[in-house]
Specification:
Family (chain B): Belongs to the binding-protein-dependent transport system permease family. CysTW subfamily.
CATH superfamily of the largest domain in chain A: P-loop containing nucleotide triphosphate hydrolases
Order of helices and strands of chain B: HHHHHHHHH
CATH superfamily of chain B: MetI-like
CATH topology of the largest domain in chain A: Rossmann fold
Oligomer: heterodimer
Shape of chain B: elongated
Mean pLDDT of chain A: 91
Helix content of chain A: 25-40%
Structural class of chain B: mainly alpha
Number of strands of chain A: 14
Number of helices of chain B: 9
Low-confidence stretches of chain B: none
GO biological process, one term (chain B): D-methionine transmembrane transport
CATH class of the largest domain in chain A: Alpha Beta
Radius of gyration of chain B: 20 Å
Strand content of chain A: 25-35%
Subcellular location (chain B): Cell membrane
Membrane topology (chain B): Multi-pass membrane protein
Number of helices of chain A: 12
CATH topology of chain B: MetI-like fold
Number of domains of chain A: 2
Strand content of chain B: under 5%
Distance between the termini of chain B: 49 Å
Organism (chain B): Marinobacter persicus
CATH class of chain B: Mainly Alpha
CATH architecture of the largest domain in chain A: 3-Layer(aba) Sandwich
Chain lengths: 335, 221
């Protein structure tokens, strides 16, 4: 468990303290995938670097499994860092070392593993990230996705309990992003390790995270389970991110809504209700006619969800809304 | 051919070439041995680097700059008492090596500093995140990553030392430069001058070629 207790960070620039992270308190549970989303400069990079003390905090306490990491002496800090893997946007692989040597590197640095242990672990990890055929290649000979998989294997080498991902998919194309995210999700499930993932793409959060914190100007402005934050965003910044990830043009949406007649409702289905043939039966029972203005059916991590914006005309609206709510559909009246 | 090169004593040329090789080889060895750690320290003490030490950096940088700003011909002369103290003579091949190192080491140190700065900061950060200490970061990540740059630096230093070594003829240093000055210049033996210069050109060409090959071999990018 990672506990932030009034943690803050500021940088000294020309004698003045510029805040990068305002006092923040939050808890990241063991074994969850925790997303931190924010625009560049929002302080998310700083936040993630506080966890392995690549950046020292300026105030507050960070407790990891009940230990205050600010109290570690240099040797303890190094031992602690071995238990926290990290992957990076630009992979940061050593270009002078082969794939296998890159993965072995943290184990060699640790100085507590035998040659045999290292060799076996590297083989195991290469197989895990499907790169066994590339063991003796150099990073420049690999594609971006392969490089990041090497990065992941390297981060896992010393069997960490926490994995920090710093914009790990931002330099990858959409397809590769998907495969890397799947790998992260699988690793999270198999090894039960805690993943803290920072990104500027809400889509990444939607696919792998259990909970998310939204950051803006050095502050966490919204935090909660991904389904809550994603489907019912409260803060303007969060809304921006959600709209962005859904490729919704807000002006166009407004225009569509103005053209539509009658009541406009936004329905949110989650889990099983996504698959139920609900709209038809509700329309029949209540006598309303509906047209779909916009909609999206997708998954949040493993949970299916649907979000539809409907305009309803005629019939008995109250009966329709009651029927929808009875079927576990979240109904929001837009107009 | 014989008529054109009447003054050329090939045995003398051979000996002088060997002297130049020894001077360049020895001074390069010591320049690297001394310059490499200084370059690493310059890098580490620099702004926003691992062991940021503004005062130590300023002092070290000042010493390096002083040695680099003294024209080599002056350095040769200034170094004489120190050279005598160190190896008992300021003459011959041995006498030329201390001033060559005094000129070569700071030059190489700056090249090392520059090539270390070229290493992606992300790599240092990643290595830190793995729990490496400063020594491990230097030997495990920084130096291997900067190796092609450092080899290129050794090449440039070697070539600089070839021309410095030629200058040491002025203080009786020996080698091809000495030959060129004593015979080619002072006795107006143009043929000797041409041969020595041609040999120096070949020497530099070979050094550059070997250096480039090595850089290519160690570059994995």
């Amino acid at each position: 468990m990672i506990v932030f207790d009034q943690v803050q960070k500021s940088y000294q620039v020309g004698g003045r303290a510029i805040p990068a992270l305002h006092p923040t308190s939050m808890t990241i549970d063991t074994g969850e995938v925790f997303g931190i989303v924010g625009h560049s400069g929002a302080g998310k990079s700083t936040l993630v670097r506080l966890i392995n003390r690549l950046e020292p905090s300026s105030g507050g306490r960070i407790l990891i499994d009940d230990e205050d990491i600010n109290r570690y002496n240099p040797a303890e800090l190094r031992a602690f860092r071995r238990k926290v893997g990290m992957i990076f946007q630009h992979f940061n692989l050593l270009s002078s070392k082969t794939v296998a040597d890159n993965i072995a590197f943290p184990m060699k640095l640790a100085g507590i593993y035998s040659k045999k242990e290292i060799r076996e672990r590297v083989e195991e990890l290469l197989a895990r990230v499907s790169l066994s055929d590339h063991a003796n290649k150099y990073p420049t000979q690999l594609s971006g996705g392969q490089k990041q998989r090497v990065g992941i294997a390297r981060a896992l080498a010393c069997r960490p309990t926490i994995l920090l991902c710093d914009e790990a998919t931002s330099a990858l194309d959409p397809q590769t992003t998907q495969s890397v995210l799947k790998l992260l999700a699988d690793i999270n499930k198999e090894l039960g390790l805690t993943i803290v993932l920072i990104t500027h793409e809400m889509d990444v959060v939607r696919r792998v995270c259990d909970r998310v914190a939204v950051m803006d100007a050095g502050e966490v402005v919204e935090m909660g389970p991904v389904s809550e934050v994603f489907l019912h965003p409260q803060h303007p910044t969060t809304r921006d991110f959600v709209f962005e990830s859904e490729n919704v043009d807000r002006d166009e949406l407004q225009e569509d809504l103005q053209k539509a007649e009658g009541r406009i409702l936004r329905l949110t289905f989650k889990g099983e209700s996504t698959y139920k043939p609900l709209l038809g039966s509700v329309a029949r029972e209540s006598g309303v006619d509906f047209s779909i203005l916009s909609g999206r059916i997708d998954h949040i991590k493993d949970t299916p969800y649907g979000q539809l914006t409907l305009s309803l005309v005629g019939g008995d609206l109250d009966i329709a809304m009651q029927a929808l709510e009875a079927a576990d559909v979240h109904v929001e009246v837009v107009r | 051919m014989e008529a054109l090169l009447t003054n050329v004593d090939w045995t003398e040329i051979g000996l002088a070439s060997w002297d130049t090789l020894v001077m360049v080889g020895m001074s390069l060895l010591f320049s690297v041995l001394i310059g490499l750690p200084i370059g690493v320290l310059l890098f580490l003490f620099g702004k926003r680097q691992l062991l940021e030490q503004p005062v130590a950096y300023a002092v070290l940088s000042f010493v390096v700059n002083v040695l680099r700003s003294v024209p080599f011909i002056i350095l040769l002369i200034v170094m004489i008492p120190f050279t005598v103290m160190l190896i008992g003579t300021s003459l011959g091949v041995a006498g030329a090596i201390p001033p060559l190192v005094a000129g070569g080491a700071p030059f190489f140190a700056r090249l090392v500093e520059t090539s270390l700065r070229e290493v992606d900061r992300g790599i240092i950060e990643a290595t830190q995140a793995m729990g490496a200490n400063v020594r491990q970061i230097i030997f495990g990540a920084l130096l291997p990553e900067a190796l092609p740059g450092i080899i290129a630096g050794i090449t440039v230093t070697a070539i600089t030392l070839v021309s410095y070594a030629a200058m040491s003829g002025v203080i009786g240093g020996g080698g091809l430069g000495d030959l060129a000055i004593r015979f080619g210049y002072q006795r107006f033996q143009t043929d000797v001058m041409v041969i020595t210069v041609a040999l120096l050109v070949i020497f530099v060409q070979v050094l550059q070629m070997v250096g480039d090959r090595l850089v290519l071999y160690f570059s994995r990018r």
